[in-house]
Design brief:
This protein has eight helices and no strands. With 149 residues, the protein is mostly helical. Helix 2 packs antiparallel against helix 3. The radius of gyration is 19 Å and the shape is globular.
Length: 149
């Protein structure tokens, strides 16, 4: 390479902070699409947010929390669109970040129930209750799964 030539990759390098900001903007836009019931756009935009975060040089508790939230929000939409395998996968990834996430266990329990994986659904419903024992909705979900099986 000519020593006077500019390395073009330097012109397009984006800092971790900029990637985090892009991820937050994509998450917020995806949340708006979800509220508008524009589920395909929400899924694509959550994916963009995860892609922004996947390119970070360094992860922190802040970025981990953001990633967990995006995986969970993604899972809300995939449950609505009946893509239960994606819900299970994304909730599992959220739980790898935070093993005490009641929301991830709850969403995954719904997906397992929809796939008639009753043992897994009940287990996740129980785990959600352990994470947040005062949440009546989690207890109701557990009872619904017990009755449905």
């Amino acid at each position: 390479m000519d020593e006077n030539a500019v390395d073009k990759s330097l012109l397009y390098s984006v800092s971790d902070e900029e990637k985090i900001q892009q991820a937050i903007q994509n998450k917020d836009l995806a949340n708006q699409y979800y509220k508008e019931k524009r589920y395909d756009e929400a899924l694509l935009t959550y994916q963009k947010a995860l892609t922004n975060l996947s390119k970070l040089k360094k992860y922190t508790s802040k970025t981990d929390e953001l990633m967990k939230v995006i995986f969970q929000n993604f899972s809300v939409v995939t449950n609505i669109t009946c893509d239960y395998n994606s819900t299970v996968s994304n909730c599992t990834r959220a739980l790898e970040i935070d093993s005490k996430s009641a929301k991830a266990y709850y969403l995954r329990s719904i997906a397992f129930a929809k796939m008639s994986a009753w043992k897994e659904a009940l287990n996740d419903a129980k785990e959600a209750i352990k994470c947040n024992p005062n949440d009546k909705n989690l207890r109701s979900n557990y009872e619904d799964i017990k009755q449905a099986k």
